[in-house]
Amino acid sequence: MTAEARPARRRRWWRRPMLWALVVVLALVAAAVGWAWNGASGYYTYEPGDALPVTASTGCTTSGGNPHLPGGGLCARLVVPADRVHPVAGKLLMVDVLVGQTTPWQYALARLGLLDTFQRAAELHSARDVLGGAPAGQFTCQGVQEMDQATTDAPVAALRRLGYSVKATYHGSQVFLVQAGSPALKGGVRCGDLIVAVDGRPTLTAGALVRAVESHAPGTVVTVTVHRSGSGGHTVTRRVQVRLGSRPGDPKAGFLGIATQDLPTYKLPFHVGIDVGDIGGPSAGLALTLGLLDALSNGHLTGGHTVAVTGTIASNGAVGPVGGVAQKTVAVERAGATLFLVPAAEVATARREARPGLKVEGVTSLAQALDDLRAIGGTIPRT
């Protein structure tokens, strides 16, 4: 063997292991990316959103789809007659959560237990939990319908607390969720439809709709009459044929596979409008109610403090649970709130996330929220 041949053999000897090592590394990286990509597709990530003032101030104006303040910050706009508005001391904040499809990076960090290290309070939730069994395409529609309910019920709860008489007229059941693979989805019922009759018999409330459907045996084909938004914003009437399924837990009762809410119109003593822009979901209800009470009474509901609020509201003042309380707690801290009112069922979650300087109280009703505001020096309007 010549001297010239030996270096060539040594180069071949060390290059081959390095090449195989590179191949193995690339294969592992590809497998990891594929694992994270596939895993992320089944999840949504909750992240802290915005805490925005609820105000009747003329400084909160709407342009470009979202209300904003002169400095550019977002706000929730209350529209009431100018002669009924009082100057407000302190701030009332509503708070939202950013919800988006989980990225492969977020999924990998979560599985390694490091997501909170890079994104405080960020959490992964399964698509099933977020969508409630509805197709992903309904997510935006669901949020819009729920916020419509909140902006309808908040003025009623506030005005009734101020002693006004508010009467309701019911028009049907608003669909805010159609389950994937359900009889309703197969028959053509859509999120956003207003169901007004089953087999020609009026169903003007959600309860009436449930009773009408359950009175039929599974397998029965029923005609569901809906009012639906058409082109140009006009409402059109459609009659869709649905073969009923079996209600879970009661195989003898008919089942559509939808979630609905009452859609009443209320006769208010004066005009009240609410604009929250493109924010969806029901959790702003209590904050909007308190904001209206503050603007329409003495303007000292918060005692001059910055108070953040989350929770659904019913027209009778009942407060219901919401999602994303951990993320909302971070958002209200960043906004400088000193008190955070949350549904009682979720107070433990908020307190675990809260840092010193933010007091958290749980409530189940508008009356209880007012008691908490009185405790920090707020002036509560008389009924």
UniProtKB/TrEMBL annotation:
Naturally occurring in which organism (per UniProt): Acidiferrimicrobium australe
A Pfam family this chain is assigned to: PDZ_6
Gene3D superfamilies in the record: 3.30.230.10
Protein name as catalogued: PDZ domain-containing protein
SUPFAM superfamilies found in the cross-reference section: PDZ domain-like, Ribosomal protein S5 domain 2-like
InterPro entries: Lon_proteolytic (IPR008269), Lon_Prtase (IPR027065), PDZ (IPR001478), PDZ_6 (IPR041489), PDZ_sf (IPR036034), Ribosomal_Su5_D2-typ_SF (IPR020568), Ribsml_uS5_D2-typ_fold_subgr (IPR014721)
Residues making up the signal peptide according to the UniProt record: none
Domain PDZ: 162-228
